[in-house]
Please model this.
Amino acid sequence: MDVQFRNLLVLLGNAINKADAPLTEPVDWGYILSSARFHKVLPLILEQAQKHPECISYRTYNEYLSQGTVSTVEQARKTALFLELYKAFIQAGVHPIVLKGIICRQLYGELCDHRSSGDEDILITFDDYEKVHKILTDAGYVGEYEGITCEQAKVLREVLYTKPDSPLRIELHFNAIGHENDWLTGMNDLFRAETVDSIEVLIDGIEITTLNHTEHFLFLICHALKHFAFCGLGIRQIVDILFYAKVYGHKLDKGYIISKLKELDVYYICSDFFHLGNRYLGFDFNLEAEPICLDELVDDIAESGIYGNKSSVRRTSSQIVSSAMSSRGKKQSRAKLLADTIFVDRRRLVNNYPELQEKPHLVLKAQYKRAVKYLKLKKERGANLTQEGIALSKKRIELFKKYELL
Model:
């Protein structure tokens, strides 16, 4: 495990747990600040870094400070915009279920705006789609797809809504996790808008509908593992899970959660999330299971960044890892690995081309578009893109096997 990433984890833990754990010398502030930005935790790290004179004197500190300040101010604005939008939902008689985002930010107390959100996620039934769509479009938001049908909504994970000159992005979910493979479908079935148990939480005087604490905690885990099983998992998602357990642990149905984690074959990796929190972030959870391969997990997180899709090699490897998860327990040849690097499973394609749900004959056309895009990237990136992608995927697949995910 890289000692400087460990220092980043210590600073992050100090910020959220109001602690003062020491760093390991010598400290590479350049690495820590750039990695904090990479993992979207820069404002939180700056809260602690400013206590260290050697960081303040670092040559590009002021640039990072400016970026962190802008992120915090912009997040406060996005939160205000979302609350105004949610008031419009309430007035129209709809109560979308809010996931992650603003709910997780409340865990951070006075540092809530230091925990940025790329978008706000809302989960709805298809029956509410027209109302929600109208509210969003009346407010000036534009959806990435037009005329979503009921059949498309059954498998489409989300629709992104953006507004010109607004930093707020809305991800409208018909499915909380998605149906890219059977493993994810099993997770998705736990969080159907029609059947979940919702609660109301008060945020700045507005009642927000969200999942009950047990379901929301389980959702945070499943959402994080979805990212882990594709490109990778960032440290901010781990912190959200740990912080949620710390704040709401007394309200969680632990027996139900453990049973579901075991059903989904994710109990061991989730246990290591908590070992990570105890060892490096200053949490103090009472754990029964021993660590499995904690430092390998931390290395993967360090290389991943917030969503794991920063590098073309990482994105290339995600196609292969995803295929492995789709065919769990089946041996894959090198030819199959190569094919999965270029072509994507139809169930994943639907999220980019929802019309495929009703027009399966267009799959070949969609595959062709993606193959051309990949070959163009390969030409720009160089001949090693495929080999590097396969090598990284094999490394990650071995980690998955240690956690009994494969």
The two ends are 24 Å apart (CA to CA). The CA atoms of residues 71 and 375 lie 35 Å apart.
